[in-house]
Amino acid sequence: MKGPCVYVDVCDRKTVEDVVKKYDVDTIYHLAAILSAVGEKNPQLAWKVNVDGLYNVLEVSREYDLRVFWPSSIAVFGPKTPKHNTPQDTILCPTTMYGVTKVAGELLCKYYADKYGLDVRGVRYPGIISSETLPGGGTTDYAVEMFYAAIKREKYVCFVREDTVLPMMYMPDAIDAAIMLMNANSSKLTYRVGYNVSGMSFSAGELASEIKKHVPDFEVEYKPDFRQKIADSWPKTIDDSVARKEWGWKPKWNLENMVKDMLEKLKRKLLSLT
Ligand code: VAH
Fold it and tell me: 133-152: per-residue pLDDT in tens?
């Protein structure tokens, strides 16, 4: 990453405003959030960071006429939402505080777009798999933790059932989605935030089997914990046809090429640490 790096407390509007002024910011990619699993342990903090933090970013962006990218999540969907090929417009009744904050965020962003003409855009990310950052307290963390266990030749104890299927996306696709949407022609967009996007869907067992093609002695034991209930409330596959039609979304990564790339990258990373 090029350019200055500073720490900002999104819950403190003044620190957000000071950085915008000092560095003459014109666009904010507001990714800071408390994720689903940690959010269930501290719902009040999740609301504070995810909603009050977003409010501060929207207010500063309104005042300084900035553009904003803000990610929602498939966590906006709940048990009443169709599980397969979940449509763009559907029931949003999440059962986690994280999901509640993302529904509130989608409504807040739409309000700022309609009321003030703020150019705020966003997608509903599925679980994101990255080789660059460690998992951050989400329900989909198992999909990253598995890789670390495999390259360390350790058995992995998975906190969701083997047959748990969730929509996922490889980080390079997640970054592409954000940039493509922010570069899209505004007149073609019929939504502001909350575009359904997806890269792939797989079960925990399918991920383990794909990893085993590269690490044959890799072993996984399945011991569901409180995060199973969260995973069970989310869809299995997502209809992202609106994003494909309106701004050309198309994932480049699937289970096979993502697993190969992740293992190669993590092996290099661990070798560089030894
Ligand atoms: C989580 N990784 O697990 C996040 C994500 C859809 C899941 O939002 O909480």
Answer: 899 899 999 999 999 999 99
Q: Summarize pLDDT for 220-248 with one digit per residue, the tens.
A: 999 999 999 999 999 999 999 999 999 99
- Beta carbons of 66 and 60 less than 8 angstroms apart: yes
What are 74-102's pLDDT values in tens digits?
999 999 999 999 999 999 999 999 999 99
Q: Name the residue ranges covered by the structural domains of the chain.
A: 13-272
The pTM score is 0.96
Report CA(236)–ligand 1 centroid distance (Å). 13
Q: Which of 34, 129, 139 to mutate to test the pocket of ligand 1 (most atoms within 8 A of CB)?
A: 139
Largest CA distance in the chain: 57
Pocket flag, ligand 1, residue 72 (CB < 6 Å)? no
Ligand 1 pocket, residue 39 CB under 6 Å: no
Q: Measured from the CB, is residue 201 less than 6 Å from ligand 1?
A: no
What distance, in Å, lies between the first and last C-alpha atoms of the chain?
Answer: 24
Domain 13-272 has CATH 3.40.50.720: yes
